[in-house]
Amino acid sequence: MTESHLFKNPEPDTRPISKDDFEILLELQSKILSLTNDPNSDLMMQICKLAEKLTSEAVASVMLLNKDENKLYVHSAPSLPEEAIDGLNGLEVGTGSCGNAVHHKEAMYISDTMTDSRWDDNRDFAKKFGVGACWSVPIADESNEIVGTFALSSFDKRFPSNFQRKLLETCARLVGMFLQRERIVEQKHQMEEDANRFEKLESIGVLAGGIAHDFNNLLSIVMGNLELVERTAKLDEKSSGYIA
Prior knowledge:
It contains seven helices and six strands. By secondary structure, the chain is of the alpha+beta class. A hairpin with a 5-residue loop joins strand 5 (about 135-140) and strand 6 (about 145-155).
């Protein structure tokens, strides 16, 4: 695990982004939000692809945190080969750009994976897949808990521009929002399933109650007839025993 005193992020670029860049970010948000009404749209994949379109020589990925294992797994990475996804799955928190972003709860802007200490444990991966730089921003849920990361991995060694930082932050917020929506939809489906199950159990209870009521009615008739026989008929001791 890389401690904070062992690395230094580049100083934030305080210069305002240009009007054109700002409009690009607004267009990105508008385009993604417009897809929310399309049930067949993979929103995470669309965010990754749009981020890649705006950042040359880079691939985007969304990784989600498995809290039980304290590891990250790829949730969406449309441009990564399966071999790379397999190599990323199970990334330890505290390693690489994404693992450190989760551990330190802040963005990690690594400009050279070959020399930065945060990539010491993942250097073989960087060499194999040509990752020169990797910028990762943590994704937070509605309770401000870190649930994953949004990252851009560059084939060139470079620092992110101010626009690219804003792009990463925008995409991370959008992913967080859609993950929250997914949880709400899942909870709704679960509640509907629970309600259906309750209705079925209630129906079974009503049916069982009806059967018990009918059985009691039949049993009352039998008992009444037996009592009538016992009171009115002249029975020997053996027959009385049977009726009792």
